[in-house]
Automatic annotation (TrEMBL):
A GO term, aspect molecular function: ATP binding
Organismal lineage: Bacteria, Bacillati, Bacillota, Clostridia, Eubacteriales
Domain Aminoglycoside phosphotransferase: 218-269
Assigned EC number: 2.7.1.100
Family that this chain belongs to: Belongs to the methylthioribose kinase family.
EC class name: transferase
Protein origin, superkingdom: Bacteria
Record text on subunit structure and interactions: Homodimer.
Natural source organism: Clostridium drakei
Keyword field: ATP-binding, Kinase, Nucleotide-binding, Transferase
The name this protein goes by in its record: S-methyl-5-thioribose kinase
PANTHER family: METHYLTHIORIBOSE KINASE
GO annotation terms (biological process): methionine biosynthetic process
One of the Pfam families matching this protein, by short name: APH
Length: 407
């Protein structure tokens, strides 16, 4: 029985190094490889294995039986299979806008993939106020291809149901159902928020019965709307960027859910960068310039998504009734409505709930941080309640600008 072929155990750096040597046909026999654990996410362990001699490197990602952030979350290591399989599928659908997977190992619950160390995590880069002019174009190609081409409008319905089965992901979905759709909307003991923000959340969100009813409807839609094979956690910490290139990773929350969930996550996390820029860039011109780029990016993502979605629909739809007059507009309109709602949910949960974002918590000036948090919370409410009317890029950005002008 081999060390890695018998029974699962959680690897340390030395184990991962041995694993790469003995289980992966990637490095030459004379390679001098090193290993470093570089994971900083909430759930997994990520090892970078490098051979300085040949300059070759790869990443091994291993899932543990509980979340890294807290033992409270018991999460099946099967998420590692889900992630490696969806990355392979998305690689084909999106023409390489995700890292290449080399091997999945169902015993060690790990997979080896392309090392993207030349890239930066997008959240970190945005908080350093860097611009990525091609991002809107690249991410909308990823979104349209992965969301439309996995839907009933395009693929055979029996094949689609097989995919629904393969990507059933109850534990990770439960995390989202709790952390995104439930806990931010009451005084939950797991929430973590500043006392002043808590008062604001209580009077503006927790006491608003109309808002609570909408969040209940949205939670049930998330649980029941098997529309597209979604990434499920598409925030800017799940995206690698280079000046000219974008790669989406960390897809372990993938399942068949509402398409708007992914688009909404991208937009909400750009709004966090926008509020980071508002609070931390002191020079007026520089601030206007950077916020201007983020505005354009948000507007372009919504409008380019709609444009590319319509074009791909005309080219790829196979379902007869989907071609009836008016159906495309109805279908896309619903995705945009869901997008707006998810922008609202993500804005609230990252301020109130357990999992925060560095864009906001790194704002050192406490008054500015509280202002940013209040802007996110009031905008959250608008994105949820007015979702029926928020359909174009300009509509999305107007919500933020209107709320910002009140503070
Ligand atoms: C327990 S996991 C907390 C959060 O981290 C992940 O990236 C997801 O966003 C999840 O909600
Ligand atoms: Mg993640």
């Amino acid at each position: 029985m081999g060390k890695f072929t018998d029974k699962y155990f959680r690897m340390n750096e030395e184990d991962a190094l041995q694993y790469a040597k003995s289980q992966l046909e990637f490095f030459h026999g004379d390679a001098e490889i090193t290993c470093k654990e570089i994971g900083d996410g909430n759930l997994n362990y990520v090892f970078k294995i490098e051979d300085k001699k040949s300059n070759k490197s790869l990443i091994i990602k291993q899932a543990g039986p509980v979340a890294r952030i807290s033992d409270e979350f018991k999460v099946s290591p099967d998420r590692n299979r889900i992630e490696s399989e969806i990355l392979e599928l998305q690689y084909k659908l999106s023409e390489g806008l995700v890292p290449k997977v080399y091997k999945y190992d169902s015993i060690m619950n790990c997979f080896a993939m392309e090392d993207l160390s030349d890239y930066e995590i997008m959240r970190t880069a945005l908080n350093e106020h860097k611009k990525f002019p091609k991002f809107a174009d690249q991410i909308t190609t990823f979104l349209v291809n992965t969301l439309l081409l996995t839907s009933d409008a395009v693929i055979n319905h029996k094949e689609k149901k097989e995919l629904v089965k393969d990507f059933i992901n109850p534990e990770l979905c439960e995390i989202t159902e709790d952390l995104v759709y439930t806990e931010p909307f009451y005084d939950c003991s797991r929430n973590e928020l500043l006392p002043e923000t808590k008062k604001f959340a209580a009077s503006n969100l927790w006491n608003d019965k109309k808002l609570l009813l909408e969040t209940a409807k949205l939670k049930f839609e998330f649980m029941t709307k098997a529309q597209s094979l979604i990434h499920g956690d598409l925030h800017t910490g799940s995206i690698f960027v280079e000046p000219d290139s974008t790669k989406v990773f960390d897809a372990e929350f993938a399942f068949y859910g509402p398409a708007g969930y992914d688009i909404g996550n991208v937009i909400a996390n750009l709004i966090f960068s926008y509020e980071n820029a508002e609070a931390t860039i002191l020079d007026k011109k520089e601030k206007e310039d950077y916020k201007g780029w983020l505005e354009t990016t948000i507007v372009d993502i919504i409008d380019l998504f709609s444009k590319k979605f319509k074009a791909s629909w005309k080219e790829n739809v196979t379902e007869k009734v989907a071609n009836y007059d008016g159906f495309l507009e109805y279908y896309l309109g619903n995705i945009l409505k869901d997008t707006s709602a998810v922008v609202g949910l993500e804005l609230a949960r990252r301020i109130i709930g357990l999992a925060h974002v560095r864009d906001i918590v790194s704002i050192k000036d406490i008054e500015k941080r509280i202002r940013a948090e209040k802007i996110c919370l009031l905008s959250s409410k608008k994105f949820i309640l007015d979702r029926e009317n928020i359909k174009s890029g300009v509509n999305f950005i107007k919500v933020i600008k209107d709320v910002e002008s009140k503070f």
